[in-house]
Amino acid sequence: HFDGRDLLAMSARDLKTLRRQVQFVHQDPFASLNPRMSVQALISEPLDIHGIGSVASRQQRVSDLLSLVGLDQSAASKYPHEFSGGQRQRICIARAIAIEPKLLVLDEPVSALDVSIQAQILNLVNDLKARLGLTYVLISHDLSVVKYLCDQVAVMYLGKFVEQGPAEIVLNNPLHPY
Q1: pTM given for the model
Q2: Which of 10, 59, 101, 171 could share a disulfide with 23, CB 3.0–4.6 Å?
Q3: How far apart are CA 53 and CA 59, in angstroms?
Q4: In Å, how far from its chain's centre is CA 152?
Q5: What is the Cα–Cα distance from 114 to 57, expressed in whole angstroms?
Q6: 134 with 104: CB under 8 angstroms?
């Protein structure tokens, strides 16, 4: 369910509308970026798909997003292979927030990154959550990441929810052995 609506019962048209409200940040930033597209094209693609803004306003939006995620404006003309893993993840985050979604699904967003870069990306994600009023669904096996980013936790075991509640309570006093 999202916004009180059953996702499985939605029509194709309703799902297209929903896609504007829900975006995804993948575990592997390199695999989720088309290597033949410039950063400008990658970040503006969701704007193009949803018909948001003019060409000039899309270019400005990309510029604003690059700045928001901590990348230089020169990044717009480059390609994914020209960046480090952390920079690629910043590009993925900029792309995900380009159309101002309500919800971001973060699938192990720092697991493919060096430990030193993980903290930077986690701080960025936490800052964007507060600044943009985003809600996250974080999928992670790393309890330190869960503890840092989450207010509520749901623990899954064998595909079923076995425990859920406030992060501090679930993480400090788990009821399920998993």
Answers
A1: 0.93
A2: 101
A3: 10
A4: 17
A5: 35
A6: yes
Tell me which residue of 43, 1, 20, 42 sits closest to 101, measured CA to CA.
20
Tell me the residue type at 44.
Answer: S
Q: Report CA dihedral (45, 47, 50, 54) to the nearest 10 degrees.
A: -120
CA–CA dist 46, 37 (Å, integer): 13
Nearest-angstrom CA–CA distance, 164 and 154: 4
Element (H, E) at 161: strand 160-166
Strand 103-107 and strand 135-139: the pairing is parallel
**CB-CB contact of 76 with 24 (8 Å):** no
CA 27, CA 162: separation in Å to the nearest integer? 24
Residue with tokens 């094209």: 41
CB 56 within 8 A of CB 47: no
Return the biggest CA–CA distance within the chain. 54
Contact 136, 125 (CB under 8 A): yes
pLDDT tens profile 67-104: 999 999 999 999 999 999 999 999 999 999 999 999 99
> What does the pLDDT look like over 124-165, one tens digit per residue?
999 999 999 999 999 999 999 999 999 999 999 999 999 999
Closest CA to 146 of 175, 98, 110: 110
